Amino acid sequence: MIPARFDYVAAASVEEALQALSQSDDAKIIAGGQSLLPVLRLRLNAPELLVDIGRIDSLRGVREDGDALVIGALTTHSDIVTDDLVRRHALLLSKAAAEVADNQIRHRGTFGGSCAHADPAGDMGSAALAMDAEFVIAGAGGTRTVPAADFFVDLFETALGEDEILTEIRVPKKTGWGAHYEKFVRVAHQWPIVAVAATVNASGGTINEAKVALTNMGSTPLRASATEAALSGATATEDGVRAAADQAGEGTNPPSDLNGAADYRRHLATVLTRRAVLAAAGA
Amino acid sequence: MTAVQDAPAASPEIGRDRRRKEDQRLITGRTRWTDNISLPGMLHMAIVRSPHAHARITGIDLDAADKAINIYDVFDGKKLQDTMGVLVNAWPITPEQQAPTHYPLAVDRVAFAGQPVAVVVARSAAEARDAAELVDIEYDVLPAALDLKEAAEDKVLAHPDLGTNKVAFWQLDSAGQGSGRAIDEVIAEARDGGIVIEREYRQQRLIPAFMEPRSVIVDPTGEQITMWSATQIPHITRFLLAATTGVPESKIRVIAPDVGGGFGGKLQTTPEEWITWAVARWIGKPVKYTETRSESLVSAHHGRDQWQRLTLAATKEGRVTGLKVDLLADMGAYVGVVGGGVPVLGAWMFNAIYKWEAYQFNCTPVLTNKTWVDAYRGAGRPEATYAVERLMDELAVEVGMDPLEIREMNWIKHEEFPFTTVAGMTYDSGNYEAATAKAKEMFGYDALRAEQKERRDRGDRVQLGIGISTFTEMCGLAPSRVLGQLNYGAGGWEHATVRMLPTGKVEVITGASAHGQGHETAFSQIVADRLGVPFEDVEILHGDTQVSHKGLDTYGSRSLVVGGEALVLAADKVIEKAKPLAAHLLEANVEDLEFGNGRYSVRGTDQGMGIAEVALATFAAHNYPEGMEPGIDAESTYDPINFSFPHGTHLCAAEVDTETGQITLRKYVCCDDIGNIINPLIVSGQVHGGIVQGIAQALWEEAVYDDSGTLVSGSFVDYLLPTAADTISFEIDHTTSPSTTNTLGTKGVGEAGTIAATPAVVNAVVDAIRHLGVNDIVMPMTPERVWTALQGGGRGTATVEAAEPHFEGQEDSR
Ligand SMILES: Cc1cc2nc3c(=O)[nH]c(=O)nc-3n(C[C@H](O)[C@H](O)[C@H](O)COP(=O)(O)OP(=O)(O)OC[C@H]3O[C@@H](n4cnc5c(N)ncnc54)[C@H](O)[C@@H]3O)c2cc1C
Question: What is the reported pTM?
Answer without folding.
Answer: 0.96
